[in-house]
């Protein structure tokens, strides 16, 4: 498993950037259905401009989850814990149609550079 803090610090150093603020931040996506079971909403989007968001728990998200941003597109096709994807800009998390739960939590390491 990757050490998140070390990995992110190395990535930022390679870019010549210092970290002003960093924290773990859970993002909860709600699956909303109507009384017949039709899915009304299974995604959320948010702005993360001038920030770097590193996905920490890809291995816990349902297979088929899609995360897109201005800089990256990730479609989870298998569970693995040996990679860390980076996102920034407008981020959208979309749960797969096969997901039957009501909540899903994506855990990110949010970094704001100096």
Whole-Å distance between the termini? Answer: 28 Å
The side-by-side strand order for the widest beta sheet comes to 1-8-4-7-5-6
One letter per element, helices H and strands E, the order comes to HEEEEEEEE
Radius of gyration from the alpha-carbon trace, in angstroms: 15 Å
By CATH reckoning, the class would read Mainly Beta
Number of DSSP helices? 1
Structural class: mainly beta
Return the CATH architecture.
Sandwich
Regions with pLDDT < 50 over 5+ consecutive residues? none
Counting structural domains, the number is 1
How much of the sequence is in beta strands?
Answer: over 45%
Would you mind describing this structure in some detail?
There is one protein chain. The chain contains one helix and eight strands, in the order H-E-E-E-E-E-E-E-E. The chain is mainly beta and 114 residues long. It has a single domain (4-113), classed as Jelly Rolls (Sandwich), CATH 2.60.120. The strands form two sheets. The protein has a six-stranded antiparallel beta sheet, with helices on one face. The longest helix has 11 residues, at 4-14.
Give a quick precis of the structure.
The protein is built from 1 helix and 8 strands; from the N terminus they run αββββββββ. By secondary structure, it is mainly beta. The chain has a single domain, classed as Sandwich (Jelly Rolls), CATH 2.60.120.
Produce the secondary structure layout.
Elements: H1 4-14, E1 19-30, E2 32-33, E3 39-41, E4 43-55, E5 66-68, E6 73-75, E7 86-94, E8 103-113
Antiparallel strand pairs: 1-8, 2-3, 4-7, 4-8, 5-6, 5-7
């Amino acid at each position: 498993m990757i050490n998140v803090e070390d990995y992110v610090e190395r990535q930022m150093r390679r870019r010549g950037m210092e970290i002003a603020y960093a924290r773990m931040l859970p993002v909860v996506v709600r699956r909303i259905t109507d009384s017949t079971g039709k899915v009304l909403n299974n995604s959320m989007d948010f702005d993360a401009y001038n920030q770097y968001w590193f996905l920490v728990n890809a291995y816990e998200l349902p297979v088929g989850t899609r995360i897109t941003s201005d800089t990256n597109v990730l479609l989870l096709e298998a569970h693995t814990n040996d990679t860390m994807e980076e996102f920034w800009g407008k981020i959208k998390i979309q749960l797969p149609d096969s997901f039957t739960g009501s909540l899903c939590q994506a855990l990110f390491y949010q970094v704001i550079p100096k």
